[in-house]
Amino acid sequence: MEAPEGRAGTFVTASAFLAWHRQSPVEVLESLGSSREGLSESEASIRLAKHGPNMLRQEDPIRTLDLLLGQFKSLLVWILIVAAVVSGALGEWVDSIAILAIVVLNAVIGFYQEYNAEKSLAALKRMTAPRARVRREGQSRLIPATEVVPGDVLELEAGDLVPADARILESSSLRNVESALTGESEGVEKDPASMARPEVPLGDRRNMAFMGTSVATGSALAVVVGTGMDTEIGRIASLLQKASREDAGEKTPLQQHLEAFGRVLVWAALGIVGLIFVLGWMRSLPLLELFMTSVSLAVAAVPEGLPAVVTIALAVGVQRMARRRALIRKLASVETLGSTTVICSDKTGTLTLGEMTVRELWSVGERWAVSGEGYAPEGVIHSPLSSPGGKPEAQEQGSCLGRLLQVFVGCNGARLSHEGSDWGVVGDPTEGALLAAGGKGGIQQTEIERSLPKVMEFPFDSDRKRMTVLRRMPDGKVRALVKGAPDALLDRCARILDKSGERSMSASDRQDVLAANSEMADRALRVLAAAYRDLDSPAPSSAEDVERDLVFVGLAGMQDPPRPEAVEAVKQCRSAGIRVVMITGDHPGTALAIARELGIADLRERGLSGAEMDSLTDAALLERISGTSVYARVTAAHKLRIVRAWKAQGGVVAMTGDGVNDAPAIKGADIGIAMGRTGTEVTKEASDMVITDDNFATIVAAVEEGRGIYDNIRKSVQYLLGGNMGELLIFAAAVMLALPMPLLPIHLLWINLVTDGFPALCLATDPIDPDVMKRRPRPRSERFTDRTFLLQVVLTGLLTGGVTLGVYVFTLQHASLEAARSMAFATLVFSELFRAFGCRSETKTVWEISLFSNLKLAGVVFVSFLLQIWSHHNPWLGAVLKTPRMPWTDCLPMIPIALIPLLVMEGFKLMQRRRRKTS
């Protein structure tokens, strides 16, 4: 650590000294080589050169070429490229060009989806304040925020964005909104007092102001202790970079399965081709013919349409989810959602509205419930024992309720803003909630300001824990309206207001107030008290003179309420086997209360705080992670650690959030989900998916889509592989029986790309099974090609290959080789087209699924039938496909033969269903 040597010398930097909250203002100024008059211009220039601009450092931008080349990393893609090269070398240019076209199309779609996906740090940079007011040489100056340096003295006022991390030197009624950084929805009181504890959570550092937060009320003088990457937001940026680098190599479950499947496919194909080559060599077949046959088999073994099917299936999923208000930024994220086992959700703005709302009002002998959410003055104040439709006459300001709302609206420094259907607050969120409650009871701020003009104000401070506004009444007298913490206000009250009017406050009354306050606090409501006093003198000398002998009016209990639809969404997640975990920077009591209301935690469960997490090793955290549903008072680093702990246990983790402090965990999760309306740009750019309506229930819909897309990809791959297995078996049997090759390379390409390819694409867009959310999530370790999958592929291959080979051998005995090949070609095509209907479900039979639920598949099969028949009667298409003319009398008998694989496979489904019922 460097020692201070005066303002022009060296000084302690923010990165070298982290416990600024422990030092007194004098010690901080001395450590930074500064004073309350600020730095000199020359010293500021020296420090700017040393520390650099007050901005967040960005990693090297993504190179377009690297992003494009990244689309060719898949093993299956390289298999297709090799197959295209071999086909071209053998003179099969049509095959070669078609395969390469598929590869290029797949790469273009993937490149387009991922371009511009990495802009998180640029968004963080945009969050910094563009201008800042500092003291330089004792003069107040407005400078670009990028030129702020450690040691600069900031002048902060209500509405300002804080341009850098700073230690508060002096303050007046200062409250900062830090929800984007800490996740806490309430404004935080700030003061310059030192804090003795060495380890204080970020949200509790009351003598610090942080970059990217805003000043809700009051003013302050603060000295800058950190700029750029040395700020708390800078630490988050570093975490974001680290999460990006460490998780860059991770692949989604589907990508992992397909890569593993591709490797198996390559070795299996090589093994089969090698076996056939050896068998042919043992039967003394010509080596050139044997080599060309082997190459054709290798091409037949690889489903050329597979990359296109996967890409199209994911792209269609993106479109479906967009219609359900979920915007996907990366194609693979659609599938990842389907295998999600854990959703780590931020509380503020995600599970809750992110807006303080008054839920209850209390006065002696009366209690009212307040309906309506957020800052919109739309709702009803009613007794919990009466119908919600009965709105009381709160406009009568002499009543207990009217007087209570009069105090909360009249003693208020905020105002509500209204743009279209959106309501917001300018100032402290708590005061905004009180204004909204007043509007619901008919007490409008504009009317108060008009009829009861302000005379004087004593702002809230942390010592008094009260705020007082003096207003002139219509009769000319002055009334003091006071609000504050119940315990601090109650001691100042001598009288109380009830239905019969003012009277002396008894000990029993005080107990009733304290009991009501305690009962509300136990339910995690933030409680404020209201009182008033009519003054004899219109010009009091101090707050102490005014805030005594008050008349107690009542209490208001408020909270950031849960989203109404979130309860049902959490319930749906549980029924689908998905664990919902709340991670928040808010107070543990508040977090647990909301979690219990949402159904995330039960009454026995206790949460885990960030301070407790700091005392746990990674191994100890892993032991507790599965039994903990609520994490409170956590920082960005804690959130990232929680996500990685769940991943270490094998979970597929989705992380939702809206604040800057959520961005690293969102980036580090298997899928990051940002809120579109309330989310910061940082969070959106770090995410894989953006929920446009900020509705937690939309995540459940996205999970359903993800599961459906995975099923569709699986059924499409199964369909393609079943056909390819049939082709391999046909060739293998022909070699072993020393028969001429039953199919030509152009036949294989037509089947793989047209006859199989288009139905496979239709299967990839099949409607989602209504029962998909009744299943447990797929484990990350579950193989894409499980026993049932492989059994159906092999059985399908045996059936389609068997009937095709039977037609080929029979025709070869009675007609020419060309006619036999044509008949085998048509039989294989027809059986593949019929089989597409059976592949729509692994458990339901073809007659249990409506044909009209996928008209695209029905249309493609019908058109493919016509094309195949037409190829045997049209000279031009027949020349391309090398299919001679075939009489109609020969075409019709092949249809019942081609139905055999479908009917047998449907019988296999019934047998499996009966076996599951009896087991």
Description:
By secondary structure, the protein is an alpha+beta fold. The chain has 4 domains: 20-58 and 130-234, Calcium-transporting ATPase, cytoplasmic transduction domain A (Distorted Sandwich), CATH 2.70.150; 252-315 and 706-767 and 785-918, Calcium-transporting ATPase, transmembrane domain, CATH 1.20.1110; 326-352 and 564-694, Rossmann fold; 357-559, Calcium-transporting ATPase, cytoplasmic domain N (3-Layer(aba) Sandwich), CATH 3.40.1110.10. It contains 35 helices and 27 strands. The strands form 4 sheets. Strands 10, 11, 12, 15, 16, 17, 18, 19, 20 and 21 form a 10-stranded mixed sheet that branches. Strands 8-27-26-25-9-22-24-23 form an 8-stranded mixed sheet, sandwiched between helices. Strands 1, 2, 3, 4, 5, 6 and 7 form a 7-stranded antiparallel sheet that branches.
What is the element layout, followed by pairings?
Layout: H1 25-32, H2 41-51, H3 64-69, H4 75-89, H5 93-114, H6 120-127, E1 131-136, E2 139-144, E3 153-157, E4 165-177, H7 179-182, E5 188-189, E6 208-209, E7 214-226, H8 232-247, H9 253-282, H10 287-301, H11 306-323, E8 326-328, H12 332-338, E9 342-346, H13 347-351, E10 357-363, E11 366-370, E12 381-382, H14 400-410, E13 415-419, E14 422-426, H15 429-440, H16 445-451, E15 454-461, E16 466-472, E17 478-484, H17 486-490, E18 493-498, E19 501-504, H18 507-522, E20 526-535, H19 543-546, E21 550-559, H20 566-575, E22 579-583, H21 588-598, E23 608-609, H22 610-614, H23 618-625, E24 630-632, H24 636-648, E25 653-657, H25 663-668, E26 671-675, H26 681-686, E27 689-691, H27 696-736, H28 745-755, H29 757-764, H30 787-814, H31 817-838, H32 855-871, H33 875-881, H34 888-898, H35 900-918
Parallel strand pairs: 9-22, 9-25, 18-21, 22-24, 23-24, 25-26, 26-27
Antiparallel strand pairs: 1-2, 1-3, 3-7, 4-5, 4-6, 4-7, 8-27, 10-11, 10-21, 11-12, 13-14, 15-16, 16-17, 17-20, 18-19, 20-21
Helix pairs in contact: 4-5, 4-10, 9-10, 9-27, 10-27, 11-27, 11-29, 12-27, 14-15, 20-27, 23-24, 27-29, 27-30, 29-32, 30-31, 30-35, 31-32, 31-34, 31-35
